Amino acid sequence: MSDNAIEPVIDVKNLVTYYGPRKILDDVDFVVNPGEIRVIMGGSGSGKSTLMRHLLGLHRPRAGHVQVLGKNINKMDPKQGMSFSREIGVSFQGGALFTSMSVGDNVALPLREHFDLDENTIRIMTRLKLEVVNLGGFQDLMPSQLSGGMIKRTALARAIVMDPKLLFFDEPSAGLDPVVSAELDELILKLRDAMRMSIVVVTHELDSAFKIADKITVLDQGSVLMTGTVDEVKASSNERIQDLLNRRPRHQEVDVDEYLTRLTGIGED
Amino acid sequence: MSLNPVHRLVSHLGRSSLEIIEEIGYIGSLMVESFFFLIFGPRRGQPVRWHHILYQMRQIGADAIPIVALLSLVIGLSLAINGIAQLKAFGAESAIVLGVALGVTREFGPLITGIVVAGRTASALAARLGSMVVSQEIDALRVIGVEPVRYLAAPPLIAAIVVLPCLCLVADFFAILGGGLFSSGPLDMTLYSYFHASLEALEPWDVMQGLIKGLVFGVLIVLIGVGTGFSVTGGAEGVGRATTRAVVMSICAILITDMIFSFFLNR
């Protein structure tokens, strides 16, 4: 570990964001330290994917400050943007593989775009990363020929092909069977230990979250309910967190007037 | 709160005018950005790749040759059939050579090319980019550090600029061939001398006019296809809607610019 390990890889302050008139994130603070595996957990619509998109610079926040790897992500010039994209890797929820390219070309794309390497080097680096995710020998298949788990693993291979400092992983286990998703969890742990990456995982799978997380941030309706270790989260007395942990349905208070307005449309403007 | 009908009409008009202006602005910025990356991209690590352009040239141009040729031949034939029937009344059948040659090079050649390419390319671009938006592939590109406009919009745009005028020439040739096939009999000419007479009748400017039109149509088609593709929202249905919209809009744009061009180029 380096001496100035105290400087966080992600530092988000007072992030506020809207989707149209709807507030998605409300005054979110989010700090991740180097070498940490951080899980962002929350129900559907809690804003966890939106938070990740802000960390990647895909959205501009309405207010607040997003600093990733020491740079203000919304104030980067194109050159900084290029070097930033070399230092992060992202595995999207559906894989987001380029359907017109083979598995090998998908994984090689970042190398081809960022470096002037000869094809042999690119091929070897690509196959190495495919071996890491247990997809050795699959480089010539097209994405349409892959199973769900293989798509996720290919996306992971593409995300780590440039040995990023920071890896984002959106819903690694969504739609996968328990065995495959357990394998992916192992892989995430292995990546951190072998390559010293900091990893941010967005998930709503409890088992997976508890297995891999150093710390968990629980989001609910756009705000951070708590950030803590697995044990702290499990021991939390917060009702919403316990609902999430124990798979309890939400018990929302019904505002009678509002309910009638929604049903009848009278009184709306 | 309910608006009265006039109020609603005016607000609808205003809103859709704003949308159209916004869209034109967006499409214009796509074009500027594409050229920017073509010229300055290599210095910023965002080069427009030659093999992408060549690939698009094949898709937009070479693959469209058979259908462009066939349709032009048909148009040439029907121009000749109609023309000779009408001109017979004046005993001026021989004017059909000039009529077909001018009509084809100035108007029908680029129009056919434009409409065929709009049907093929605008829809293909909108569908491909639209589904890339839906499946987060565009986000993935951005995160990898690849500017989507440089990677996905610039190659087809440049390809179209090169390829559309060539397609227009193909269309011109086959349409005149069609005209010749029908009228060489009634005019008592060989096909060769029909072609010769057509070339005699044409000024270089006539052909150039068509090629310029073709080029502009190509730019419009690609920009509309790419623009609608990038702005897809709402999943698979959105992709379908964008595809239809891209074809309809680019055909409208082609016909309107064709009219404007014809007006100004013939003053």
Which labels suit this protein?
heterodimer; A: 269 residues; alpha/beta; Rossmann fold; 10 helices; B: 267 residues; globular
What does this structure look like?
The complex is a heterodimer of chains A (269) and B (267). With 269 residues, chain A is of the alpha/beta class. Chain A has a single domain, classed as Rossmann fold. Chain A is 38% helix and 23% strand. Chain A has 10 helices and 10 strands. In chain A, the strands form 2 sheets. Chain A has a 6-stranded mixed sheet with strand order 6-7-8-3-9-10, with helices on both faces. Chain A has a 4-stranded antiparallel sheet with strand order 2-1-4-5, with helices on one face. The model of chain A has no long low-confidence stretch (mean pLDDT 86). Chain B is mainly alpha-helical and 267 residues long. Helices cover 85% and strands 0% of the residues of chain B. Chain B is built from 9 helices and no strands. Chain A binds chain B through residues 53, 56, 58, 78-79, 81-82, 84-86, 88, 90, 92-94, 96-99, 109-110, 113-114, 158, 269, and chain B through 1, 44-46, 131-132, 135-137, 139-140, 142-146.
Summarize this structure briefly:
The complex is a heterodimer of chains A (269) and B (267). Chain A has helices at 48-55, 78-87, 103-114, 119-132, 148-160, 178-195, 206-212, 230-234, 239-245, 256-264, and strands spanning 10-19, 22-32, 37-41, 63-68, 71-72, 88-91, 166-170, 198-203, 215-220, 223-228. With 269 residues, chain A is α/β, with parallel strands linked by helices.
